[in-house]
Amino acid sequence: LRCFFFLGSTSAQKTAPPMESPSPHMAGLDGKAADEAAKGKAASLMHDRFNMVFIPPIVALTGLSLLKSSDRQAGVHTALTWTTFGYIVADIFYNALVPRCQPGKVRLGSILFHHFVTCWLLWHPIKFPDEGHITALCTIVEVNTVFQTMNNKIWKRKIFQQGFMATWFSMRLLWYPYLVYRFHWHMKYEFMVDVGSYEYCQVVGSQFLLSGLNFFWTAEFLAAGKKNNGAEKTVKDK
After folding, report:
1. What's residue 73's pLDDT?
2. Could you count the other beta carbons within 10 Å of the beta carbon of residue 224?
3. Model-level pTM?
4. Which three-class secondary structure string do you get for 84-142?
């Protein structure tokens, strides 16, 4: 989640001591790095625009799926599940083919892991259409993705940043862990499978892994913020 990583303050460039002119070799390296950075930003922006096309319909279908009882919304549940599955598969291919859209290999690996786990989870309501209500309980978190994308590079506004942070905490760090318990209860007492069975691990295990990834990304955010604050303080002290 790229918007978690703060850009270095421009004041650091103003207060840094003058540097010697770089050699032609170093200038070439700097030019290559700048070119790669520009390509990365372009790929990231394209990915954000891709999200703004496909995520809002998923959020709308999620709202419809949650609006009425499960037996009256079977068609919406199925549409939401397949739409989400298609989006995730398309995003797997995009990230694999254009890895520079992510800020680093760790983020790329965690995103791809997230997507494969999500596909495994989605396969449960695909295989058992009566379980389609599970999808909406998970995809409600895409409201956070909408705020993230709008705040990231498209429409930078304070309200989008506040919405992103509020939904990150409430949906990813509170709601998703709660779903681990809810899915455990559902699979054991409603779907009637044993704890540790394939279907149980597919639903409850997947949700546990997805919740863990949210805390992993939160730790990345905190570590990056601390590192950037420390670097800015060091520059100001010089």
Report:
1. 73
2. 14
3. 0.81
4. HHHHHHHHHHHHHHCHHHCCCHHHHHHHHHHHHHHHHHHHHHHHCHHHCHHHHHHHCCH
